[in-house]
Amino acid sequence: MDETHRDRDAEGRARNARPRDGLGRPLPYGTPGVERQPEGVIRSPDETLREAQRLLDAGMPFHAHEVFEDAWKSGPEEERELWRGLAQLAVGLTHSARGNTTGGARLLRRGAAALAECAQSGGFVEPGEFGDAVPYGIGVHGLIDWAQELAGRVETAADAQPVDAAEEAPCLRPERR
Question: How confident is the model at residue 133, as a pLDDT?
């Protein structure tokens, strides 16, 4: 019987241990890669946004998506749509930077729609308190505009070239820049 070796994490769960590049793509074993984001980290919303912005600015949107995913999975139910939408924007930028313009545009639009729905419904704050920003200083309307503009640009580019993830990184909290 041929037993195939599977990478496992400390808890014994299957986890690919191959090194990854800055866009989360697996590299051959033994190749230097970038450090992966630890999974399941519980952060405050402020810590989540700071870490995600740092990763986005460094051209690592895949890793930023993992930070948002932790907030989505560990945060209060009423905040999950917000964090899921932000994760989708990061994955959309990841795909666009990898050259998958169709998938990138689709995820950017999906994330923008999730944020628009969150903003329209009032998200997890009282209706009418949302205004032009959601809690934690997130510039939701600016992010929606950014995602729709980038989706249109990557989708209609004649040569379907990957975008520069760091150059295209959105600003999550405009007041903090």
Answer: 45
